[in-house]
Amino acid sequence: MENMELMKPDTKSRILLDEIDTSAIPPMEEPQRQYYYMAKCREIIKERELEYGRHLNANVTTFGCQMNAKDSEKLRGILEEIGYQQTESEEADLVLYNTCTVRENANLKVYGHLGLLSNLKKKNPNMIIGLCGCMMQEPDVVEKLRKSYRFVNLVFGTHNIYKFAELLYEVLERQQRAEQMQQSPAKTDMVIDIWKDTDQIVEDLPADRTYSFKCGVNIMYGCNNFCTYCIVPYVRGRERSRRPEDILCEVERLARDGVKEVMLLGQNVNSYGKTLRKQFSSDDSAQNTASAGTEEPVSFAELLQMVERVPGIERIRFMTSHPKDLSDELIDVMKHSKKICNHLHLPLQSGSSRILKKMNRRYTKEQYLELAAKLRREIPDLSITTDIIVGFPGETEEDFQETLDVVRQVRYDSAFTFIYSKRTGTPAAAMEDQVPEDVVKDRFNRLLALVQTISQEMAMKVEGQTLPVLVESINDHDDTLVTGRLSNNLLVHFPGAQELIGQIVNVHLTECKGFYYMGEMAS
Ligand code: 5AD
Ligand code: SF4
């Protein structure tokens, strides 16, 4: 294997890129192949820097969830290696949209933004416009882009984001060829690479972390649940767990780097490990850069305990838990943990057992309530948050009342409420009796009012207490204040300065302002 050096977790690859022989044929192994293409891209970017007399800049815009935010850190890391400087502005040399498609309006937003980009590209024909992420896994979308958005240079999906450098090189090369043939680089053909699914997990690529003190860590990819409204299993593929030793290695590395809080990420973290044995039993995949395999599957609760033992890590969060898979073992681990935060996101989706069945959620209203009661009993100060969909096909007023009933009984600390959005290709999209828009809007408003009243009451619970806060930033509106998070995920603003960022300090919670606190640092 060549360039083994590249796989050393703590080595700065920036120096090593210079050691890569870019005139050699590209290596077949990953991630070496991608480092090779990063070096090739960098050569072209350096030429352009000389030509323009300035640095090139890149904008990565994220739509959607924590998974996408995590993917964007990887994409930014690759761009940084190549030599791009990050910018918030979309008036950039490269703009990459990491898209979401969970609801229709996520797609509409992207098309809206693309209109703006086409105007910017008229001013800068060498501008590179790339699209990746969940929305690109939909064949209709790619077809539409191919036909009506020909100024886009690069389209790739969720399964091959690790290949970004290789694909970008293809774009840069096409632009160079066009220039040599005295054609406008703006007219080069789109590079499209979409995979239907994958069983590969390519690791050890660069990442540009958004925060120095907290970081998301993927523990699994994809989803096998097929809730009938949800497009995620179609765009993120089958469930694959990362090996525990690789996850731990990453967490240890982050801790050495000063990270205090990790968020373990997966579409359904409670089913972590279930596919491990199958995935790695005959593992000789050249693409998988992970080290020697674990024979025995590890449960999510066990993984949490392993992460808990990593020195330097002070807080552990995770997202998202499916109620059907939440084990007593996990509740027990959470109850006794000093590091796992007092927060559990437990999507309800609907309070009606009839609708839950149509949603393929595989729990009933009663089972959910029982689970919530057990959680409250075992971990009394646990903050429970949720996701709720209003207007699923066939939802009646009675079904909706069941949802309100669960909200009243569980008393969520906060809830994300969504209007059902029909996603082509999902079973629910073909269901009859879609609920009229005005009925859904009315239900949505009633739900929101209830959720907000309860969450304000719940937030009040810790007023007057002194609790640890991880300081995240200078306050957006008042630079004499800093903003941080309680273990239960509530925000706290209090007087403080830059040097507190990244520290965990005790804060007296003086006043609850509904969804956040004002406080004072305890001496
Ligand atoms: N319509 C509305 N909301 C949806 N979600 C997923 N699919 C849809 C859809 N088709 C919501 C679910 C999920 C959250 C991330 O998005 O509540 O938990
Ligand atoms: Fe979608 Fe259900 Fe999977 Fe969550 S568990 S990603 S809602 S299919």
Report on this structure.
The chain is globular, with a radius of gyration of 24 Å. The N terminus is likely disordered. 36% of the residues lie in helices and 19% in strands. The protein has a 6-stranded parallel sheet with strand order 2-1-3-4-5-6, sandwiched between helices. It has a 5-stranded mixed beta barrel with strand order 15-16-17-19-18. The protein is of the alpha/beta class and 523 residues long. It folds into 4 domains: 190 residues, Methylthiotransferase, N-terminal domain (Rossmann fold), CATH 3.40.50.12160; 133 residues, Transcription Regulator spoIIAA, CATH 3.30.750; 87 residues, Transcription Regulator spoIIAA; 59 residues, Beta Barrel (OB fold (Dihydrolipoamide Acetyltransferase, E2P)). It has 15 helices and 19 strands. The site of 5'-deoxyadenosine has 12 residues, from strand 13.
The first-level CATH class of the largest domain is given as Alpha Beta
Radius of gyration: 24 Å
Please give the alpha-carbon distance between the first and last residues. 55 Å
- Ligands, ions, cofactors: 5'-deoxyadenosine, iron/sulfur cluster
Q: Report the uncertain regions.
A: 1-15, 284-295
What's the tally of helices? 15
* Gross CATH architecture of the largest domain: 3-Layer(aba) Sandwich
Q: Please tell me what the overall shape is.
A: globular
Structural class: alpha/beta
What portion of the residues fall into strands of 2 or more residues? 15-25%
In spatial order, strands of the major sheet run 2-1-3-4-5-6
CATH homolog superfamily of the largest domain: Methylthiotransferase, N-terminal domain
Number of strands: 19
**What is the CATH third-level topology name of the largest domain?**
Rossmann fold
Percent range for helical residues?
A: 25-40%
Biggest β-sheet description: 6 strands, parallel
The whole-number mean of residue pLDDT values reads 92
The number of domains: 4
